[in-house]
Design a protein that fits this description.
This protein is α/β, with parallel strands linked by helices and 324 residues long. The chain has 11 helices and 13 strands. The chain has helices spanning 13-24, 57-67, 84-104, 137-150, 173-182, 200-211, 232-241, 252-267, 277-283, 293-299, 307-320; strands at 4-8, 28-32, 48-50, 71-74, 111-115, 157-162, 164-166, 184-188, 194-195, 197-199, 218-222, 228-229, 246-250. The protein is globular, with a radius of gyration of 20 Å.
């Protein structure tokens, strides 16, 4: 009999690839959907749909008891929210509710895997190599979720903190790619940064692999193991597209002013722009690298993609699927 896995957030970018990886490892996949969820891109998959009420620990526990999942991967989250409270409610409280329901269920799961973010640790500074220092409300909400999970006794927990994730179906880095394809390459300021990336299929595969391990109570940082400059991403995109775009380095005061204006203006319509004041804290941090020795040791993680090869495959997918 196949093992069952519940994947939340499966209609999103990383979730799609988690479904692919789970099916490749012969798991019976259940995903959480809402009435408003777009699922047309998932029709090719042989998967099951459930609707969860993250506000209710009781309902979540009922669902777990009914479907008897062997594993839960909680990847659902919001990356843009109008305020700190909304981030915390969706990303931290909902995570806690699902984990508490799992711990109270009469059916005991074998693994609870949480997709966190390097933002929960924050950027590295000279005097803070290891101590958590989240600089965005998104990062703080993920850090709080981790704190909640670590307080639940007996939860068979593994936490993954990926750096910037890219690949087919990703929409944020795609903005830069689309711009370069159109002939414009914009950068926020000229200051150098140290960045890291992880290709989505590498992330999804190691997360699924962790389900079958004996490991619990572990938190893993994950990237492709390399360190890139601020301008590496654009350089590889230019090469893959064979483009020579107009390059504009916009001064940070201008970027901050634009972010403030967009945030205030769209706020009247209850919308959150991609460029906002919280995002400024992220794009001005100097060091977003991480050490992957532990995940390599424990799970035998070997990244199959570096940034250039991953972008080549990603851009080919965008073209094939008419995104570019």
């Amino acid at each position: 009999m196949k093992k069952r896995v519940l994947i939340t957030g499966a209609t999103g970018f990383v979730g799609y690839h988690l479904i692919e990886a789970a099916l490749a490892d012969h798991l019976e996949v259940y995903i959480n959907v809402r009435k408003s969820s777009v699922v047309s891109h998932l029709k090719k998959f042989d998967i099951n749909y459930v609707e969860l009420d993250f506000e209710s620990i009781y309902q979540l526990r009922q669902n777990i008891d009914e479907y008897k999942y062997d594993y839960i991967i909680h990847a659902a989250a919001t990356t843009k929210a109008k305020n700190r409270e909304y981030y915390f409610h969706i990303n931290a409280t909902y995570t806690r509710n699902l984990a508490v329901a799992s711990s109270l269920s009469t059916h005991k799961i074998e693994k609870f895997v949480f997709l966190s973010s390097l933002a929960a640790r924050g950027p590295i500074t000279n005097d803070q190599q290891n101590r958590a220092n989240p600089v965005t409300n998104y990062g703080r909400s993920k850090a709080l979720a981790e704190t909640y999970l670590n307080q639940i006794l007996g939860l068979p927990l593994i936490v993954f903190r990926p750096t910037a994730v890219y690949g087919p179906r990703e929409k944020d880095i795609f903005i830069l790619i689309k711009g370069i394809n159109s002939g414009f390459e914009l950068h926020a300021g000229a200051q150098e940064q140290q960045l890291s990336f992880i290709y989505v299929t590498d992330l999804a595969k190691v997360m699924i692999k962790s389900l079958f391990s004996e490991l619990t109570d572990k938190t893993y940082h994950i990237s492709d193991g390399q360190v890139y400059s601020k301008f590496s991403l654009a350089a590889y995109v230019r090469k893959a597209l064979n483009k020579r775009p107009f390059v504009l380095k916009v001064p940070m005061p201008v970027i901050k002013g634009l972010a403030w204006t967009l945030e205030k203006t769209l706020g009247f319509f209850d919308q959150v722009p991609a460029l906002n004041m919280d995002k400024i804290n992220e794009i001005t941090a100097l060091n977003w690298t991480c050490n992957i020795d532990q995940i390599q040791k424990d799970l035998g993680f070997v990244p199959h993609y570096q940034l250039e090869s991953g972008l080549n495959e990603t851009i080919a997918w965008y073209k094939e699927n008419k995104w570019l």
